[in-house]
Design a protein that fits this description.
By secondary structure, this protein is of the alpha+beta class. Helices cover about 20% and strands about 45% of the residues.
């Protein structure tokens, strides 16, 4: 679970009255909210000090984010992969 404060949500997903006039979007004030997520990470060490890793995360967005006129879906996802060397 990830919690985001009212200030955070309003800054990133809110639309003030002046922004509404300029953009044509409805004004929107966001409250705080919880975003549940599922994350899977894996790492495999090979060739001594070298490793490869991968991480994927699926997040279900809170209603406070989904209801923003700037958001058009109810989820987000991210995937990252890389190679590391330990010394």
């Amino acid at each position: 679970m990830e919690w985001q404060s009212e200030h955070y949500n309003d800054y990133y997903y809110g639309v003030s009255h002046s922004e509404s006039r300029r953009s044509g979007l409805k004004s929107y004030d966001a409250d705080d909210g919880w975003n549940p997520y599922l994350e899977l990470s894996a790492s495999y060490k090979f060739a001594g000090d070298w490793s490869v890793y991968g991480t994927g995360r699926y997040t279900r967005l809170s209603d406070e984010i989904k209801d923003s006129p700037m958001v058009d879906k109810s989820w987000s996802s991210v995937f990252s992969a890389g190679i590391t060397y330990s010394f």
